[in-house]
Specification:
The chain has about 270 residues and is of the alpha+beta class. Helix content is about 50%, strand content about 15%.
Length: about 270
């Protein structure tokens, strides 16, 4: 999540240039000025208060027709719960306050831009995840997928329940699909199927959430007394070397380097 103040310019993005962005969804919320978002054969002009998105697995262009200000959110696909065909339908389209949900979510993004400092530490991580869920709900509503397909809505609800159970048990190192399925009151086969819908696996989702939680812990000033190993164990990792490798692969720095940088930033 970042704020961008820029003069008139154009950005051309090709997948592969930024490993950490590949396959993510980039959301642009316009705060000032105007920009044009282009992907595929579609483009959207964003005025203040409007939102658009692109799929970073595909090329896109962003054109600032003059000085502009935007809030940019980089979200994993799992956060918005949309597959490739649905993302293709939404990419480079403008979302404006046309319905009740948009009139709730878009002002929330305006407030987010004013209070980015609140998105720090463990509480900030929870706030960021809540913001991502709001944006995902808005996008799904725009497509009408949940209202038009009760089966999809039910599967999304079941997956959300499984995710909630896993979030509450991140620190349990022995978690596997069987334990998760039992805790979420479903079969192991159904659990795997629900996560397959979003192009990921149960283990990949759990690993990503553990890394997110550990990152929040490393930036939390209240947890500075905990060693990196203690934080790894706290979030379900059983081997500190494996945790360090996984963290660096995800964030580009080691846990210790990330923690030091957070202190310098005053997080």
């Amino acid at each position: 999540m970042s704020l961008v103040d820029a003069p008139a310019h154009e950005i051309r993005y090709l997948p592969g240039g930024a490993r950490e962005h590949a396959g993510a969804v980039k959301v642009f919320f316009q705060l000032g000025g105007a920009t044009v978002v282009r992907q595929g054969n579609r483009e959207a002009t964003l005025e203040p208060g409007a939102l658009s998105l692109v799929d970073t697995a595909r090329p896109y262009r962003l054109l600032g027709e003059g000085a502009f200000r935007s809030l940019i959110l980089l979200l994993p696909r799992t956060a918005v719960d949309l597959g490739e065909p649905e993302l293709a339908q939404l990419a480079a389209t403008a979302v404006t306050p046309h319905d009740a949900l948009a009139r709730i979510v878009l002002p929330h993004l305006s407030e987010t831009a004013r209070h980015l400092d609140a998105y720090r530490g463990e509480a900030g991580g929870r706030l960021a995840r809540g913001t991502a869920e709001l944006v995902g709900a808005l996008l799904r509503t725009r497509l009408g997928t949940e209202a038009a397909d009760p089966r999809r809505a039910r599967r999304a609800r079941l997956r959300a329940e499984a995710e909630e159970w896993m979030r509450a048990h991140l620190g349990e190192a022995g978690l596997g699909p069987e334990e998760i399925a039992a805790g979420a009151h479903m079969s192991t086969r159904q659990l795997h199927s629900l996560f397959h819908d979003t192009g990921t696996t149960v283990s990949a989702w759990l690993r990503a959430r553990r890394l997110e939680a550990a990152r929040d812990d490393l930036a939390d000033p209240l947890l500075r007394g905990l060693t990196v190993t203690a934080i790894a164990l706290r979030r379900g990792f059983t081997d500190s070397s494996h945790f360090t490798r996984a963290f660096k692969a995800e964030h580009g720095v080691t846990p210790s380097e990330y923690r030091a940088g957070a202190r310098l930033r005053g997080v």
